[in-house]
Amino acid sequence: MAQGHLADENALSQSPDATIVWAHLGDAQPVRVRDLLTKHANLYADVSSRNPYFQRGRPIDVQSLTNTDGTLKSDWQELFEDYPDRILLGLDLTTDDRWAQLDQLVIYYRSLFKQLSQTTAEMIGYKNAKRLLGLP
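Now predict its structure.
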């Protein structure tokens, strides 16, 4: 197991009662995200920065949840449908440049959500955050 993966496992195992939100889906691939979601009921993950617009030192084709034609990659789609209650929408609007891309991001994530079941899209889009924050 790689050093970073061992740290992920340790943090999750040592805090089983804490709700942990893993930003950017941990910059991991679906198989790793699935593995950790399966093992740790306290883990949630957000989709922030997993788009084709934010240059973050990773190849865009690895970072993005979609193929170049805009279709949701099948392994991500399966993960989202299997764990709809554990994935959160995040936008990671941390700089002015990113705020300037807000319109693009909204279009991107709406397109992504249209490729999921309505129930899954609603859970990821807002219901999971409302539940975690204790909002009506």
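The radius of gyration is 15 Å.
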